[in-house]
Amino acid sequence: HSTSEHTLARRAREAHMKRFCKAQAIQRRLEEIEVTFRELEQEGIKLEKLLRDENCSPADQQTQWTNQLLYLVQKKNSLMNEESDLMITVQELKLEEQQQQLDKKLRSYMNREETLKTPEDCKAEQETLVQLLKVVNERNLLIHIQEEKRLSEL
Fold first, then answer.
1. What burial letters (b/e) apply to 62-85, b meaning 16+ CB within 10 Å?
2. Is 113 exposed, middle or buried (0-12, 13-18, 19+ CB in 10 A)?
3. In this predicted model, what pLDDT tens digit does every residue of 7-24 receive, in sequence order?
4. Can you tell me the mean pLDDT for 30-54?
5. Which three-class secondary structure state does DSSP give residue 154?
6. Averaged pLDDT, 54-74
7. What's the half-sphere exposure (Cβ side, CA atoms, 13 Å) at 40?
8. Which intervals hold domain BMERB (predicted)?
9. Would you state the pLDDT for residue 45?
């Protein structure tokens, strides 16, 4: 094995570990968001009950509850937005991983001597290239979606 192959393998392992750690962090954050959603739901239900029971409380108290309720809705929308971003990132990480594996597979076919390739090798190389292009296109689509999302938020 050449030094460049070892370097490529090491970089691939490092990139894989980096994606793995990022995916774990995202998973933890998604779980936290889920818990916060439930807490906000419960608080919202309490406030709605208090507001429905309006004849028992003064107007300024009702205004305060209404404002709290609006704040909860805002917070929930913000969390939903973050969750959506994280889901896109998870998809990106999966595609990145697939792309790396397909790159490696394609490189192994391309490094073979042309005269030694069987028709099956040529077919597999072609299929790998098609899969790789599909993954690259999916990643580009995700980048486009994120950009559209970012622009609509501005």
1. eeebeebbeebeebeeebeeeeee
2. exposed
3. 888 998 999 999 999 999
4. 92
5. coil
6. 85
7. 19
8. 13-154
9. 93
Other beta carbons within 10 angstroms of residue 46's beta carbon come to 13
List Cβ<8 Å contacts ≥24 apart for 124-131.
128/102, 131/98, 131/102
**Residues 93, 79: Cα–Cα separation, whole Å:** 21
2: left (phi over 0), alpha (psi -120 to 50) or beta: beta
Instruction: Write the CB contacts of 54 (distance below 8 Å, at least 6 apart in sequence).
Output: 62
Which domain, by its residues, includes 66? 1-153
Structural domains of the chain, count: 1
Q: What pTM does this model have? A: 0.77
